[in-house]
Design goal:
The radius of gyration is 14 Å and the shape is globular. It has three helices and eight strands, in the order βαββββαβαββ. The strands form two sheets. The protein has a six-stranded mixed β-sheet with strand order 1-2-3-8-6-7, with helices on one face. It has a two-stranded antiparallel ribbon with strand order 4-5. The longest helix has 18 residues. It starts with a strand and ends in a 7-residue tail after the last strand. With 132 residues, the chain is of the alpha+beta class. A hairpin with a 2-residue loop joins strand 2 and strand 3.
């Protein structure tokens, strides 16, 4: 039987909307679209680069909880309301994914809250040593 387990970050959005930050399904870890909110304070910076940094901290915490890391990411999606905000984020994104080189897509779309300037979603495959 394949393991399926939901991981929660403590974000109030998870409870209000009814989703998990990440779901482990066998070897796969699906991390929900993650924004730049600091979930401990439920605050968000107005700066897109700072939001990208916080997105990655939130994602990294979910990946660690699942027993993996950025090195295990095979797919990433970037969602931004303003395409001009993407390029300023590249150095931050490269710091997380530059050596991993996952498949990636950037989409321009509306996000749930006008304060959100970037949302990042990842899929990772857990290494054998970390399967639980």
């Amino acid at each position: 039987m394949t393991e399926r387990r939901s991981l929660l970050s403590g974000s109030t959005f998870e409870e209000q909307i009814g989703y998990a930050r990440a779901v482990i399904d066998g070897d796969w870890v699906h991390v929900s679209g993650t924004t730049g909110f600091d979930y401990t304070t439920m605050t968000i910076s107005g700066d897109v680069v700072e939001q990208a940094e916080q997105c990655l901290r939130n994602i990294e915490a979910a990946l660690e909880q699942a027993g993996c890391s950025f090195a295990d990411v095979v797919r990433v999606r970037y969602l931004l309301p303003d395409r001009d905000d993407f390029e300023p984020c590249w150095p931050v994104l490269r710091s997380a994914f530059g050596t991993v080189r996952p498949a990636a897509t950037m989409l321009v779309c509306g996000l749930a809250d006008p304060r959100m300037r970037i949302e990042i979603e990842v899929y990772a495959r857990r290494a054998l040593a970390f399967r639980r």
